[in-house]
Amino acid sequence: MTTDNSCMEITPAQFAQIEHCLPLQRGNVSLSNLDVLNAILYVAEHGCKWRGLPKRFGNWHTIYTRMNRWSKSGVLDRVFAELQQAQVVRIKIEAVSLDSTIVKVHPDGTGALKKKTVPSLSVNPEAGGPPRFIWLPRMLERP
């Protein structure tokens, strides 16, 4: 990790310690595993959307796709466990979900008048979609 407190990035020397946890890159790939891992750490640290990644990391969709594949196959779990064991990065990532469309209150609890109405469809097309997640990186300790 760099000494700059504003950026949680892994150096090539630190990456060499955990490289064995990642799949081998084959063919003509546009982004190295180190670049993708640093982009994932950037999103975790800053809590930004994937589309909000700075251009220096490369195509956000490529990074997201690889991160998603690594997450489903357990690669990210192994990488973060190895990063913490090697004391390169000491964070705990938690996902918190809050979707106000599923929070229901009894009409008596809102102080509203009791009347029968037909529920209307939401104007917001995303309101009925999946819950949105907030990444909360937490520093466990400094290496």
Summarize the structure.
The chain is of the alpha+beta class and 143 residues long.
Question: Distance N terminus to C terminus?
Answer: 9 Å
| DSSP helix fraction | 25-40%
Number of strands: 2
**Poorly predicted regions:** 1-6
Written description of the protein model:
- The protein is of the alpha+beta class.
- 35% of the residues lie in helices and 10% in strands.
- Helix 2 crosses helix 3.
- The model is unreliable at 1-6 (pLDDT under 50).
Entry keywords:
10% strand; 143 residues; alpha+beta; two-stranded antiparallel sheet
Summarize the helices and strands and which ones pair or pack:
Blueprint: H1 12-18, H2 33-46, H3 60-73, H4 75-85, E1 91-97, H5 107-110, E2 133-139
Antiparallel strand pairs: 1-2
Helix pairs in contact: 2-3
